């Protein structure tokens, strides 16, 4: 059982515009834990730094500050070499995350071979079929030699999940895994993820900007705004009882069928310049943490 | 279901076929009426023919698409009824935008990247009112930009200098610059952030209330449609399977597909819909079928 | 501004690279050009003083005493002073003098022909792409033959047919030599008459590339959303074609224009030879056949300078027509 | 003066158009500069004109009389006294003396190697040498004279002479990089020529010249044209005249003592190769049948035949191949036929590389043809193409087996010059050989050539035995394998001008690039008015 | 030298997918193999291109085995085509057809070698640079841009002028042409690699633990194949043309027969002036036709790279049908 402890994570991008350099804190002092069997949801608007955290966790980028500790169930740290066996990722766009050139088998077999999970072609094939069946791609044989473009979006995302789990990953980072899918199949994929999590006791980081699924799919929600966490706590608490202005804004902006015909021109627009990201409301502790606790709360 | 208001647009038995090797009936026998000042939502999953329908109404479909049958009638405020599908090319050109304008699915790319916002607003006016003076065109452009909440100072900007939300607003400004009676909006907010999307929706509703144009609003985000539309049409494989007032559709949808669609959206504040986190899965679609 | 600086910096680097290639070539390649050059110079009656030897050693290498870096600095210094050495085949004329007269001819010929070919190709390409499937469009693949024809072969055939057989146009030279060069009509009309065939060759051989590129770009552009918007806006077709489709589709062609100049200059070196055109290409070939290394290097530098200059101009103009690049 | 309008004085009908150069021309009328673009003979005149294709009698120009003293050490030339430079200054004997001392002072332009003393005295000039020097007379007579009053202060090696002032029948009228025009000198001492202007235009390459001829835009050119035998039909109004002066040879690096290596150091191989050549075929394929017979003595058959010694058995090389004889000769010299049809000796195949300059297509064709012919005689010939520089360098240093080239004639029609240049003095391989790149060395030949220098050209009795000695030896040794005497073909416009040289009256060598000769032709031309 | 086609830079990353959609849109099962998808669809123009290129290539490969010795000299100079000499003879009675066969082989050899070398260079500088990013990419892309603006042929001429003749074998020429000819391809490849590199499947491969070289060769390269093929084909045409130009001005490979040297000799032998078209026209025509064949192949590869082009062609006839049907519907 693998757990991840993220502490004080920060990522700074230096963008160059001609001769001038600009620093951009994409992620700033973010801490959380991923524990087996639990799902943490990361919500926030576009550009708030969600994917950056995912990239840091999967070591596609190096953090500028802070640390990510991955430990086995017995507490021993996972070495850099084994890191990717333990932490895997599902990408947002199933049309882009599978190489159109390779067969489905290739996509799932490669991680197995890289991490020496199987020996010999036969065993690999066997395991690939097994993985396909686990993600409900049946009959598995018929998928082996297909190319990604012969699959629907939902099927592709299942392949992506199978690929992520193939090396025996215990920690799964899912970066908006369903936002590119058709509405009617989104839940299918999320249900599948939930089942796999139960079966394998996975630690899951679910990145989304859809508050509704975040609420139902996760145990804990982290609200990210401009690289910093501004509110955290149990899923229902954060959604149903938002404290931070930004969370309120998000909750209000999310479409809710319960408000049939409710969008009226008079709805007050939020003054976003007032929102600040240096404070954070922690539902677990029931208090504000951070530099400045806003008055009147 | 017909509308109680005065109709501005009647679509009757419209069918569109893509003449590919095996012809695709993208829209089959679609009929509906759009009332003045009404927002009609059009929902359905990807590929059900929403965009095709929108294009066909304005005859913007390009070969190999062809209108295989049906009628599109535009009931002008002047009382005249225009048979859109029968318009001669030049009359069609004049009809477009002045009576019926559109905001497109890919609105992010709907602005010409190499000319300024000003030029694109101006040429819209000039194309339909050739005698408009420069100053008049400028005045009108600034007016509509202000309406949609874009700083008129940005009128000289090029599209790439604007954020996605601003570009979308400019598109909406452009769509109303000739004060059309109908606007078709094809997923105008899908590419945008939830918060920005909200702002724009609010803007659309407000403008509609002020200017009293009718809107056909296309999206696959059913919860969103429920919030803003008067009536909603559900499309499935090119057919309109259900058309009803928004609240009635939400509370007791007649068609099973509508119910399935509704079930796909877990509610923010209410129940989980078809989402099952723990326990046995009832609706995990087996693979194989795409 | 930043955009401008970046561009200028790039061209400075490109120029420096060209100068350095020029410096390195004779030093890297086998053989000792200095000896050949000096022998030839002597043969031509040149007095070979130590200064002369050193000047050539700087230009061409072969000086073993001076450290390479020092040679390089001195070489650049000489170039800065416009000292490219003495041409052996035109001894005792300076290389710069030998080249300066011919440069204008090449620039005029290649410039005009390239512009014509580009305009023609872009216009035809735009029309073909605007109505894909029209008769014009179906001819597009056939134009590939034109771009695959060897320039000089085509030139010779044209001379044979149009000049020798039909006597329509002069087949060699840059102008009627009876006339006095200058800004007078008889001379200018004669340069046009003499330049017609070489220009025609260049146009024929390069128009296909422009046409194909523009046509493909046009097809791509037509499926862009803003074209659909323009249609929906009820704009007149002409305006959509010109201001929306072609205006956007032409951008890669403009960007490619400068680069293609380099290619056309290359092609014209041989074309000039066929037409005895008084341009810089014939100078280069004369230099090579005479082993006039100083002249060879000088011509290469001048051509490079001209092409870099043209590139810079086009790059800067490109900023005007594509607002997106201005941001840098 | 340059820039003047040539059209004002000369109409098209009395302007002759010919080839001046390739590409843009760079102004340079310094007659001693190798990059000079013109003016020799036309603007600047020599003392006498010697017709290399006629008899050796010099024709007076600036000089009116010339004679050697008794022992051949002093050469006296009397100059014309009614001549003025084109700037109005009088021409005097002092100008002549100045010109020659200038040459002596500037070795790099002293192409004639003048090493005597020169002194002017009234209207005569005396050239004094240390030893008898009859053979140097023609070089002196051929040298053009420049005005002292303008040249005294310039560096003659770097002087561009943009406004030439001469005594000749023509003056520079107008210079443009693509063409320059000479106009008739109205004050010429011989009377104003009838030809009013000569325009030299720039044309690059043989094809361009042939095209110009076909288009009738050029009146005189010297270069091969297609279908040379039918010039009057193909180019109406033009005739072709061919003068055979270039003795084409396969020069060998002949002397093993001097360090040459390869099968060609064996005289039998050289003889055999010569026998194997089908000269008729070479003439037809490579030279459009414009070449003529060649003598193994290298005496020009056209106008020097009298110098061939009766002791030479075959005064003319047979034009048909004798492969059998060649084989017999080789076998006699110890060569044995190998399995591949090529002779070999001591493990060395009889394979000969022939150096040729890239682009000299007639020579390349010659070698290709000879290669096919030599194979019949069991000899392999391989063409080796290189640039002119490398070709020259290989010849100079002796790094070659065979090289195709032509033997240059001297300043006067006499075989002495060929013998002196190509057969007399030698240096080892590796050193620069000068003219005699075959490195042929024979003491008898060298002695005979030296003896010839002290004899006047008309001293037939004394010269004949020496000639016999030289010719017997070189015909036997054959360091240069004679191929053919190549023709120099010129085409000119007989419709527009009268007075051209003809085969019967070849008063000058008819090549436009041979400037002293073409200057003579210009003076004799008269427009027909067409 | 040919001019370059100002190249559209389509989104290569989308192309496979779009092609598959097109294939399924035609009611067929999309082909199983990705390789098959990357093959251009057979159109009459492509067939013509393939036939031209193949026939000429075969002529170059097999021709020399079938013809007589091209160096054989005969007394019959410049004879027009006849039963004995199908393409007549040269000035020295050499069989033109035989020379043509050998010359074609020579030109193909050079074109192929240059194509391979230039492609390898452009792969290294374009793909590797773009994949690594950062300073490596900056440096490589600067280098290729510099090489792009420095005019190639004059440089080649200058280099050829310096290289001693005997060292100027055909492979020397090929190397020089490759060095001056890789830059344009490298720029195109770089742009495409940059866009593929940002695709999620590359990130996914890295997350799976693939090594860099495997990511480049297995994940990125195959998707670039159509572009590489197109650049390669372009490089071959350019090289053959450039070599012909060099040979024509006497700077070609020494002692080797190419179409350029053949033209050089034909020109020096006054082939055209004498009306000996059979000597002058065929070499140029072979270059032009071979170039055309390759360019037509490229024309079809363009459709693979940018499926919109294919769309246009596919829809051409259907669009006409749709228009006709619509018109009859209305009336
Ligand atoms: N490689 C990079 N270089 C520079 N800036 C970057 C880079 N990657 C991301 N950023 C910036 O970092 C910020 C956070 O980006 P990130 O992709 O994490 O946002 P996100 O929350 O995933 O947004 P979205 O919901 O649109 O996916 C953005 O402002 C983005 O522009
Ligand atoms: N150019 C075309 N050629 C052939 N078929 C087409 C073409 N364009 C669309 N189609 C088909 O027509 C049907 C309807 O497409 P349409 O774009 O109208 O769907 P949509 O409802 O707008 O989908 P989305 O929500 O993805 O925008 C689809 O099945 C699609 O595959
Ligand atoms: Mg993201
Ligand atoms: Mg759509």
Automatic annotation (TrEMBL), chain A:
Swiss-Prot/TrEMBL keywords: ATP-binding, Nucleotide-binding, Transport
InterPro entries (alphabetical): AAA+_ATPase, ABC_transp_ATP-bind, ABC_transporter-like_ATP-bd, ABC_transporter-like_CS, P-loop_NTPase
GO BP, sorted A to Z: transmembrane transport
Species the sequence originates in: Microbacterium radiodurans
Pfam families linked: ABC_tran (PF00005)
Gene Ontology terms for molecular function: ATP binding; ATP hydrolysis activity
Record keyword Signal present: no
Protein name: ABC transporter ATP-binding protein
Domain ABC transporter: 4-251
Automatic annotation (TrEMBL), chain B:
PROSITE patterns: ABC_TRANSPORTER_1, ABC_TRANSPORTER_2
Keyword Protein biosynthesis among record annotations: no
Taxonomic superkingdom: Bacteria
Membrane topology: Peripheral membrane protein
Domain ABC transporter: 11-262
GO cellular component: plasma membrane
Record localization: Cell membrane
Keyword Signal: no
Keyword entries, A-Z: ATP-binding, Cell inner membrane, Cell membrane, Membrane, Nucleotide-binding, Translocase, Transport
A GO term for molecular function: ATP binding
Signal peptide limits: none
Main location: membrane
Family per record: Belongs to the ABC transporter superfamily.
Protein name (Swiss-Prot/TrEMBL): ABC transporter ATP-binding protein
Organism: Microbacterium radiodurans
UniProtKB/TrEMBL annotation, chain C:
Residue ranges annotated for the ABC transmembrane type-1 domain, each copy included: 103-318
Transmembrane segments: 103-127, 139-162, 192-212, 249-270, 299-321
Family statement: Belongs to the binding-protein-dependent transport system permease family.
InterPro entries: MetI-like, MetI-like_sf
Pfam families: BPD_transp_1
Lineage: Bacteria, Bacillati, Actinomycetota, Actinomycetes, Micrococcales
Gene source species: Microbacterium radiodurans
Matching CDD domains: TM_PBP2
Cellular compartments annotated: Cell membrane; Membrane
Membrane topology note: Multi-pass membrane protein
One GO-annotated biological process of the protein: transmembrane transport
Cellular component GO terms, alphabetical: plasma membrane
Name used for this protein in its record: ABC transporter permease
UniProt entry keywords in alphabetical sequence: Membrane, Transmembrane, Transmembrane helix, Transport
From TrEMBL, chain E:
PROSITE patterns noted in UniProt: ABC_TM1
Swiss-Prot/TrEMBL keywords: Cell membrane, Membrane, Transmembrane, Transmembrane helix, Transport
Membrane topology: Multi-pass membrane protein
GO molecular function, one term: dipeptide transmembrane transporter activity
Tagged with keyword NADP: no
Domain ABC transmembrane type-1: 104-298
Location of the protein in the cell: Cell membrane
Bilayer-crossing regions: 45-67, 110-131, 143-163, 170-189, 228-251
Descriptive protein name: ABC transporter permease
């Amino acid at each position: 059982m693998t757990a991840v402890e993220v502490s004080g994570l920060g990522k700074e991008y230096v963008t160059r515009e001609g001769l001038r350099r600009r620093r951009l804190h994409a992620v700033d002092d973010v801490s959380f834990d991923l524990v087996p069997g639990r799902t943490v949801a990361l919500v926030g608007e576009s550009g708030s730094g969600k994917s950056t955290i995912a990239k840091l966790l999967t070591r596609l980028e190096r953090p500028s500050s802070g640390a990510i500790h991955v430990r086995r169930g017995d507490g021993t740290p996972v070495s850099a070499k084994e890191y990717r066996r333990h932490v895997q990722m599902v990408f947002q766009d199933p049309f882009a995350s599978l190489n159109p050139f390779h067969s489905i088998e290739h996509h799932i077999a490669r991680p197995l071979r890289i991490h020496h999970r199987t020996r010999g072609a036969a065993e690999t094939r066997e395991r690939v079929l097994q993985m396909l069946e686990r993600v409900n791609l049946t009959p598995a044989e018929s998928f082996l030699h297909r190319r990604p473009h012969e699959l629907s979006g939902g099927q592709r995302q299942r392949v992506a999940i199978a690929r992520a789990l193939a090396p025996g990953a215990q920690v799964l980072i899912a970066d908006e895994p369903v936002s590119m899918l058709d509405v009617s199949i989104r839940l299918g994929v999320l249900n599948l993820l939930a089942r796999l999590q139960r079966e394998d006791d996975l630690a899951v980081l679910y990145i989304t900007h859809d508050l509704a699924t975040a609420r139902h799919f996760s145990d804990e929600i982290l609200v990210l705004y401009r690289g910093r966490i501004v509110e955290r706590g149990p899923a229902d608490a954060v959604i149903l009882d938002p404290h931070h202005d930004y969370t309120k804004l998000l909750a209000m902006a999310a479409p809710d069928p319960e408000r049939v015909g409710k969008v009226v021109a008079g709805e007050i627009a939020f003054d976003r310049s007032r929102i600040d990201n240096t404070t954070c409301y922690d539902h677990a502790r029931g208090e504000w943490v951070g530099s400045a606790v806003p008055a009147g709360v | 279901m017909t509308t109680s208001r005065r109709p501005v647009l009647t679509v009757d038995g419209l069918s569109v076929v893509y003449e590919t090797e095996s012809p695709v009936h993208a829209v089959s026998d679609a009929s509906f009426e759009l009332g003045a000042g009404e927002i009609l939502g059009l929902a359905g999953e990807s590929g059900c023919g929403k965009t095709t329908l929108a294009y066909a109404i304005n005859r913007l479909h390009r070969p190999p698409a062809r209108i295989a049958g049906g009628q599109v009638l535009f009931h002008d405020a002047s009382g005249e009824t225009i048979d859109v599908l029968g318009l001669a090319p030049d009359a069609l050109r004049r009809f477009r935008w002045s009576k019926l304008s559109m905001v497109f699915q890919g609105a992010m790319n709907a602005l010409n990247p190499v000319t300024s916002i000003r030029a694109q607003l101006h040429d819209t006016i000039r194309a339909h009112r050739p005698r408009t003076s420069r100053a008049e065109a400028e005045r009108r452009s600034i007016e509509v930009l202000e309406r949609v909440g874009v700083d008129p100072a940005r009128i000289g900007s090029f599209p790439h200098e604007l954020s996605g939300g601003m570009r979308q607003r400019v598109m909406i400004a452009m769509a109303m610059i000739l004060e059309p009676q109908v606007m078709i909006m094809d997923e105008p907010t899908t590419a945008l952030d939830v918060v920005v999307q909200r702002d724009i929706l609010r803007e659309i509703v407000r403008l509609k209330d002020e200017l009293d144009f009718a809107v056909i609003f296309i999206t696959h985000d059913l919860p969103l449609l429920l919030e803003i539309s008067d009536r909603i049409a559900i499309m499935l494989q090119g057919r309109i399977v259900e058309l009803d007032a928004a609240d009635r559709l939400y509370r007791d949808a007649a068609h099973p597909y509508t119910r399935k669609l509704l079930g796909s959206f877990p509610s923010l504040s209410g129940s989980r819909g078809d989402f099952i986190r723990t326990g046995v899965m009832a609706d995990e679609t087996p693979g194989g079928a795409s | 501004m930043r955009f401008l600086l970046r561009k200028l910096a790039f061209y400075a680097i490109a120029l420096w690279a060209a100068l350095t290639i020029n410096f390195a070539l004779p030093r890297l390649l086998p053989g000792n050009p200095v000896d050949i050059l000096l022998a030839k110079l002597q043969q031509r009656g040149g007095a070979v003083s130590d200064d002369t030897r050193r000047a050539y050693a700087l230009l061409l290498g072969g000086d073993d005493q001076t450290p390479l870096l020092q040679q390089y600095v001195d070489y650049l210094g000489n170039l800065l002073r416009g000292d490219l050495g003495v041409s052996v085949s035109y001894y005792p004329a300076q290389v710069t003098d030998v080249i300066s007269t011919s440069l204008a001819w090449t620039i005029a010929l290649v410039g005009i022909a390239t512009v014509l070919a580009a305009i023609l190709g872009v216009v035809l390409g735009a029309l073909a792409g605007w109505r894909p499937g029209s008769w014009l469009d179906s001819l597009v693949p056939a134009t590939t033959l034109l771009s695959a024809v060897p320039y000089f072969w085509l030139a010779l055939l044209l001379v044979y047919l149009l000049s020798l057989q039909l006597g329509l146009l002069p087949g060699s030279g840059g102008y009627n030599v009876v006339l006095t060069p200058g800004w007078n009509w008889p001379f200018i009309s004669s340069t046009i008459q003499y330049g017609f065939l070489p220009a025609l060759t260049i146009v024929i051989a390069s128009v296909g590339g422009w046409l194909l590129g523009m046509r493909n770009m046009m097809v791509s552009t037509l499926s862009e959303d803003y074209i659909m918007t323009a249609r929906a806006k009820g704009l007149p077709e002409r305006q959509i074609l010109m201001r929306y489709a072609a205006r956007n589709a032409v951008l890669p062609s403009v960007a490619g224009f400068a680069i293609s100049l380099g290619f056309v200059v290359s092609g014209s070196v041989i074309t000039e030879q066929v037409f005895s055109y008084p341009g810089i290409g014939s100078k280069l070939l004369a230099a090579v056949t005479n082993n006039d290394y100083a002249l060879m290097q000088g011509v290469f530098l001048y051509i490079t300078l001209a092409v870099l200059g043209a590139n810079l101009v086009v790059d800067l103009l490109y900023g005007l027509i594509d607002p997106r690049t201005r941001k840098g | 003066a340059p820039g003047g309008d040539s059209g004002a004085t000369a109409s098209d009908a009395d302007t002759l158009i010919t080839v001046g150069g390739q590409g843009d021309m760079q102004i340079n009328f310094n007659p001693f500069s190798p990059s000079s673009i013109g003016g020799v003979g036309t603007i600047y005149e020599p003392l006498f004109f010697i017709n290399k294709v006629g008899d050796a009698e010099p024709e007076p120009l600036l000089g009116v009389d010339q004679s050697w003293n008794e022992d051949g050490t002093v050469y006296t030339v009397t100059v014309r006294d009614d001549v003025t430079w084109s700037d109005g200054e009088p021409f005097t004997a002092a100008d002549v003396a100045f010109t020659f001392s200038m040459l002596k002072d500037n070795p790099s332009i002293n192409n004639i190697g003048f090493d005597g003393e020169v002194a002017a005295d009234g209207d005569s000039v005396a050239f004094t040498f240390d030893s008898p020097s009859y053979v140097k007379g023609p070089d002196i007579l051929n040298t053009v004279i420049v005005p002292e009053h303008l040249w005294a202060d310039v560096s003659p090696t770097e002087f561009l002479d943009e406004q030439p002032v001469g005594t000749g029948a023509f003056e520079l009228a107008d210079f443009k990089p693509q063409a320059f025009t000479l106009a008739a000198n109205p004050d010429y001492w011989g009377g104003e020529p009838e030809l009013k202007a000569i325009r030299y235009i720039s044309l690059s390459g043989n094809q361009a010249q042939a095209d110009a001829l076909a288009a009738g835009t050029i009146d005189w050119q010297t270069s091969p044209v297609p279908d040379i035998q039918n010039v009057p039909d193909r180019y109406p109004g033009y005739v072709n005249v061919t003068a055979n002066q270039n003795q084409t040879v396969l020069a060998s690096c002949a002397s093993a003592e001097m360090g040459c290596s390869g099968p060609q150091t064996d005289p039998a191989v050289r003889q055999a190769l010569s026998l194997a050549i089908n000269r008729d075929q070479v003439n037809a394929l490579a030279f459009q049948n414009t070449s003529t017979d060649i003598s193994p003595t290298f005496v020009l058959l056209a106008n020097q035949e009298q110098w061939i010694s009766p002791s030479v058995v075959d005064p003319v090389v047979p034009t048909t191949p004798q492969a059998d004889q060649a084989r017999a000769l080789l076998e006699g010299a110890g060569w044995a036929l190998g399995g591949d049809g090529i002779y070999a000796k001591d493990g060395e195949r009889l394979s000969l590389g022939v150096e040729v300059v890239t682009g000299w297509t007639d020579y390349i064709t010659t070698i290709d043809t000879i290669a096919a012919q030599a194979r019949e005689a069991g000899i392999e010939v391989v063409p080796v193409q290189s640039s002119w520089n490398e070709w020259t360098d290989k010849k100079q240093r002796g790094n070659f087996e065979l090289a195709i080239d032509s033997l240059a004639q001297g300043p006067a029609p006499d075989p002495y010059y060929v013998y002196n240049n190509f057969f007399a003095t030698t240096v080892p391989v590796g050193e620069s050989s000068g003219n005699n790149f075959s490195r042929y060395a024979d003491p008898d030949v060298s002695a005979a050539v030296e003896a010839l220098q002290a004899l006047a050209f008309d001293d037939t009795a004394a010269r004949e035995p020496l000639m016999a000695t030289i010719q017997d030896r070189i015909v036997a040794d054959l360091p240069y394998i004679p191929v053919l005497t190549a023709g120099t073909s010129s085409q000119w416009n007989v419709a527009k001008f009268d007075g051209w040289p003809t085969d019967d009256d070849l008063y000058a060598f008819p090549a436009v690039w041979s400037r002293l000769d073409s200057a003579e032709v210009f003076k004799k031309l008269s427009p027909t008015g067409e | 030298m040919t001019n370059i086609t100002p190249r559209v830079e389509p989104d290569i990353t989308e192309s496979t997918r779009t092609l598959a959609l097109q294939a399924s849109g035609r009611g067929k099962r999309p082909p199983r193999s990705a390789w098959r998808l990357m093959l251009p669809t057979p159109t009459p123009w492509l067939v013509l291109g393939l036939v031209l290129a193949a026939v000429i290539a075969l002529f170059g490969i097999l021709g020399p085995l079938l013809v007589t010795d091209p160096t054989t000299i005969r007394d019959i100079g410049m004879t027009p085509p006849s039963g004995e000499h199908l393409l007549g003879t040269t000035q020295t009675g050499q069989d033109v057809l035989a020379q043509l066969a050998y010359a074609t082989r020579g030109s193909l050899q050079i074109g192929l070698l240059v194509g391979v070398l230039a492609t390898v260079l452009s792969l290294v500088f374009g793909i590797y640079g773009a994949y690594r990013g950062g300073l490596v990419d900056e440096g490589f892309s600067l280098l290729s841009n510099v090489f792009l603006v420095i005019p190639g042929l004059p440089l080649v001429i200058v280099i050829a002028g310096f290289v001693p003749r005997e060292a100027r074998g055909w492979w020397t020429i090929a190397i020089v042409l490759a060095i001056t000819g890789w830059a344009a391809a490298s720029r195109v490849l770089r742009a495409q690699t940059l866009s593929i590199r940002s695709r999620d499947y590359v990130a996914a491969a890295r997350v799976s633990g693939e090594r860099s070289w495997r990511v480049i060769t297995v994940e990125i390269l195959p998707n670039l194949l159509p572009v590489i093929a197109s650049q390669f084909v372009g490089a071959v045409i350019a090289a053959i043309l450039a070599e012909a130009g060099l040979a024509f001005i006497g700077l070609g490979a020494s002692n080797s027969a190419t179409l350029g040297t053949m033209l050089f000799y034909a020109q020096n032998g006054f082939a055209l002036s004498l009306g000996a078209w059979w000597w002058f026209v065929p070499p140029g025509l072979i270059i032009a036709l071979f170039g055309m064949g390759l360019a037509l192949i490229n024309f079809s590869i363009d459709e693979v790279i940018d499926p919109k082009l294919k769309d246009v062609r596919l829809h051409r006839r259907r669009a006409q049908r749709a228009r006709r049907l619509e018109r009859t519907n209305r009336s």
